[in-house]
Amino acid sequence: MIKKSIFLLSAFVAINANALNIDSAINLALQNNNELKQKVYEYDEAKENIELNKSSFKPKLDLAYTYTDRSKVASGLKRDSSASAVVSYNLFNGFSDYNLVQSAKYSANATNLNLYAFKQDLVYNAKVAYINFLDKRKNQKTYEVAYSLFSKQYEDSKNRYEQGLIAKNELLDVQVKMLDAKQNLTRANSDLQIAKYELSNILGGIDLEKESIEELNEKKITFQEYKLEFLENRSEIKALKMSIDSLNSQLNSTKGEFLPSIDASLSYNKYGDGPTAKDVEPDDQKVAQVSLKWNLYNGGSKYSKMDINRLKVRQVKEQLEKTKLDIKLQYQIAKTDFEVSTENFESAKLALEQAKENYKIVSDKFDEGLVKSTDLTDANYLLTNAKQKYYKAYYDKFLSLAKLDRVFEKGI
């Protein structure tokens, strides 16, 4: 019994090994998407930029060696080779280095927040591509059934025409509608393939030909889960605020250039013996040095850099206000789409039930010779249209939910 259970479990796993649902599609997108990998590298670069600016707080060590070979030697010439080791350290530079490190940290945080926002976009786009594929697949099935019904109706009408029961124009009308349904089916097949390619692309180019893509189950969605005050925590807004802090730190760094800088150095010099070396020259020498430098004027470049930073801050502040308005608009659109899709789905569900009942009644009457073939054609068109509207409304509910999740960053 145990062995049998293990076998059944193994068989179940084997059958579902290639099943793809919307959650696994999202995970694949987060793992394989090339643009996301690029964004991760950008964040790594921003973190490394912090370490780059921190290097200003560390001492510097320089080694140097010179050697000169002369064809003629003048009397009293200094030694012709020397080696030196110099340790230098900046003691003060107006806090410019400190502010550059702070700027790099703010910039890295902004990059990380933008990375998170991109992940939310990626999740949303993966959901849209997945839902769009399911919609196109249902659309293809709808046209397939419609074409099958028209083909059956055409065969029936052809037999009736040969028996003299209907006029030729009725047969031709059914044939035209059948050919039109065939064209719709061909187009639906093409749309389905394109939707599959788009889904594959966002998942990192995986092959979906052997994948079983699972259907979505209807959910009961309550709008109370979404609160408007959460929009202030959107990562795009926080990223722009971090960018403003980064620019202000750059501005403070530029202000530090108006202050003096103080450097200290310690060097050890070793002199070689040249052919005309004098005994008064030392063999080696230790030098300690403290230097102060203060730039009083450099053509106004510092003022220009400060003005540029201030203008950049103003630009980002305007971008921040626009982003807040855009996010509120996203919320209003998503909220409206949710309400409309929910209402449309209920209407489409009822319309589909009525279209199915209507087609059954007309089909039965057609079999009994009580209605014309055009009546059955109209019933088929009505049923096909009702199916399309039903599935569109069905998937629009999921799309509106995905949009709301994106607005409130609930995708991850």
Automatic annotation (TrEMBL):
Signal peptide segment: 1-19
Keywords: Cell outer membrane, Membrane, Signal, Transmembrane, Transmembrane beta strand, Transport
Keyword Ion transport tagged: no
The keyword Endoplasmic reticulum appears for this protein: no
InterPro entries named among the record's database cross-references: OMP_efflux, TolC-like
Example of a GO MF term: efflux transmembrane transporter activity
Family matches, as Gene3D superfamilies: Outer membrane efflux proteins (OEP) (1.20.1600.10)
One term under GO cellular component: cell outer membrane
Subcellular location: Cell outer membrane
PANTHER family named in the record: OUTER MEMBRANE PROTEIN TOLC
Similarity comment text for this entry: Belongs to the outer membrane factor (OMF) (TC 1.B.17) family.
Protein name, entry field: RND family efflux system, outer membrane channel protein, TolC family
